[in-house]
Amino acid sequence: MIQLPEVIKNAVDALTKLPGVGEKTAFRMVMSMTHWKTQELNTVGAAISSLKDLKLCEECGMFADESLCSICADESRQFLKTLCVVENASDLMAIEKSGHFRGVYHILGGVLNPLLGIGPDELKMDELKSRIIEKDIQEIILAINPSVEGDATCSYFKTLLPETIRVERIGFGVPIGGSLEYLDPMTITKALENRKRF
Which fold has domain 74-171? Predict the structure, then answer.
């Protein structure tokens, strides 16, 4: 069997660190890149390397070019006094893509999980509470994924806030175009819990 150069092996190993990329996929990617021009390789390498200089927004924790991301820098969004709390940047981007929410966000960076050593301090809950009071936030939407840890995080978070602040959790349940017969019991339970008057 042929021995591949270390350069190729190292490139394959590096690409398998990406989520969803196994060794075969990484190998195909590297084989494709062997046909690229030097300038193309340098451009991709430099783009990946520049991720180490990525900044986070001082307000919400989203990726940013400056001290504030484009959402937190938008005064019209601050004016609404509505904050959406999410677990991670991907969740924020999914909500933004819907085009429905016009307030500001806060990225927790996870959910409470004592078994993994993730408590309120790791999620900087006190800093979030201070931000809510300082910015006079009137309404909070908890867009935390439905799980035991997510439910515990939402319950704990609600206890931190004054009762004058309106706190809601996004609805979960049957997806558009979904069929009840194919849904798991937890999804159906959540759909029944989150029903609305018709």
Answer: Dna Topoisomerase Vi A Subunit; Chain: A, domain 2 (3.40.1360)
For the full predicted model, state whether its pTM sits above 0.70: yes
| Beta pairing class for 166-169 and 63-64 | unpaired
Q: Confirm or reject CATH 1.10.8.420 for domain 6-53, answering yes or no.
A: yes
* HEC-encoded secondary structure of 5-16: CHHHHHHHHHHC
Residue 86 gets which letter from DSSP? E
**In the chain, where the domains are located:** 6-53, 74-171
Cα–Cα distance for residue pair 136/144, rounded to 1 Å: 22
Task: Collect all residues with Cβ–Cβ distance below 8 Å to 144 and sequence separation of at least 6.
Answer: 85, 86, 87, 108, 111, 150, 153, 154, 169
**How many angstroms separate the CA atoms of 132 and 134, rounded?**
6
- Digit-coded pLDDT (tens) for 8-58: 999 999 999 999 999 999 999 999 999 999 999 999 999 999 999 999 999
